[in-house]
Specification:
globular, alpha+beta
């Protein structure tokens, strides 16, 4: 089965946390996605009000949030800790003093067990 990711961007004056919260609230299986909201909040605290651009992609399999910012990078130890709490974190230079953080959370498939 092929899952197609749908791309989302903030609406109007929606800040990054409101954006992620809205996307999670719209999912039928929200529980595994709440960690993404927490990790985005941690990343924003690390950025200390520096401007960043956020987007997300969602499918039935996963949620992926991408934050792009300029200036000083987020502390490597913080990125490492983020990686310990979700399925995949990638943080790298995007060129010209810009950085890209990708946080991915896989949504486990529902399964039925026999009694």
């Amino acid at each position: 089965m092929i899952y197609i990711d749908k791309i989302y961007r903030p609406e109007g004056n929606e800040n990054a946390l409101e954006f992620v919260h809205r996307l999670i609230a719209g999912q039928s299986d929200r529980e595994p996605l709440h960690i993404v909201e927490t990790l985005v909040e941690i990343a924003l605290l690390q950025l200390k009000d520096r401007p960043c651009h956020i987007m997300a992609s969602l499918s039935e399999q996963r949620m992926k949030v991408t934050l792009r910012h300029s200036g000083r990078p987020i502390d490597d130890r913080m990125v490492w800790q983020m990686g310990n709490h979700t399925d995949h974190v990638n943080y790298r230079s995007d060129g010209n003093d810009a950085w890209k953080l990708v946080i991915r959370r896989d949504i486990p498939p529902l399964f039925v067990t026999r009694r």
